[in-house]
């Protein structure tokens, strides 16, 4: 079993390196076919996209926060949380939403303004010759594929899981829990620094567009408003649904990732790792598509740990007996559990059941 998993990991990493190289290869071929002429720079947008820059800039600066809050209010008004957002849950969600917005900017600013000029002197805007489409393609793949692996490893490595379990402890889906993460998981979010580096090298505008589009997709996937259901209900929309659910994360596929069980053939918390793009799960065989929604969410071993333990473990430990975040607990146990076949278009990988 260990040999098979090692071979699969080697295969997946090999495929990943090939995918990472695709935008570089595309940009190279573009310049070879055009005789090496630099016809545009992504330091300035293509003329057909200039109208969108103020919109994307405003969405990036404050629009996404407003979008999240408004969508959350709609969810509460519709009663989609079923009275689950109480007590410790409320504290965790509010702290996880607000604290990173206050604490992360100085970290990113130091990395971008101090660390990068020191590590890559005289490299600022060195990629400004890359056309906008090339920069967009490069960042979209580099950012999201890296996050896929970051996310996947935090599910498959027991020690890392405890840094991510805060996000899965919520017994509900929606805007309230979309930012619910352990702060250390957020600080070491690998793609943040990768994207910051590419921005320093001159890919700022493509990074802006990728970030906004990705944020909207991921927020929509976490929302308790199942916007994808009409695509499954009406036959005329089925072809669109087929493409959407394989290309990007939708409520159905991502809600399955947050289910508290995989025994019902719908929940798939050991797969469906994609954030913006679900296509990574299709490529690596970690995807499950059922077009159904789980009956319940969270983790069965959840002890409603204190907000400070969830947000700042291992700096602060839980006092809850039996908690995996408590003092002296070395790892979070996982055990293999088979899953019955469901509607799935890629090879099903072994699912590890949460203890």
Automatic annotation (TrEMBL):
Coiled coil: none annotated. It is a multi-pass membrane protein. This is Fatty acid hydroxylase domain-containing protein. Its main location: membrane. It is found in: Endomembrane system. Keywords: Lipid metabolism, Membrane, Oxidoreductase, Transmembrane, Transmembrane helix. InterPro entries: Fatty_acid_hydroxylase (IPR006694), Sterol_desaturase/TMEM195 (IPR051689). Residues 137-286 form the Fatty acid hydroxylase domain. It comes from Flavobacterium chungbukense. Pfam families: FA_hydroxylase. The chain crosses the membrane at residues 12-31, 59-81, 102-120, 183-201.
